[in-house]
Amino acid sequence: MQKYIQLAIEQKMLHAKIIAPKDMVFDIRALLKCHWGCENHDNQSFKCQKRNTTFEERLQMIKSYKNILLIHSNNGMDVSRAALEIERQAFLDGNHLAFAIRYCNLCKNCSVDDDKPCIQPLKVRPCEAIFGIDVYETAKRHNLPCYPLQHKDDVQNRYGFVCLS
Ligand code: SF4
Fold first, then answer.
1. Distance from the CA of 164 to the center of ligand 1, in angstroms?
2. Is the entire prediction scored with pTM above 0.90?
3. Domain ranges in the chain?
4. How far is the CA of 103 from the centre of ligand 1 (A)?
């Protein structure tokens, strides 16, 4: 697992840590905020699709992994790109169920946000919120920064999860 921490650092992550589901905070209110507090509140966005999975199934999916890489950066695009690259490498290493969970920020200008088709749909991964992951509390549990921004120029703290094995 150390290899993936190193890979995350090479991918410009500020922090990377192997955790287990018991080290994460799950709260169905994350889904509440997703449904009512997000610009994609109608859940029609390609980035927010649940693809016929129930909340219980999604929880079971993520809780079936033993090793999950938590990654942190100040740049959302870097997190999305790193998560996919780590997922790819883990798969090639034989972790055939490796899977990134990360709201999609892969493109500088997202065509989906402009009501156009996604330009690389196979690379889109699900958002943390639909799994009920409380990213704020999970980050806090690992002494990592995550708090509501007070000004638009404040430094962002963005997180992703790569379920490895
Ligand atoms: S267009 Fe790019 S940023 Fe938007 S959903 Fe597709 S891959 Fe993600």
1. 23
2. yes
3. 2-163
4. 10
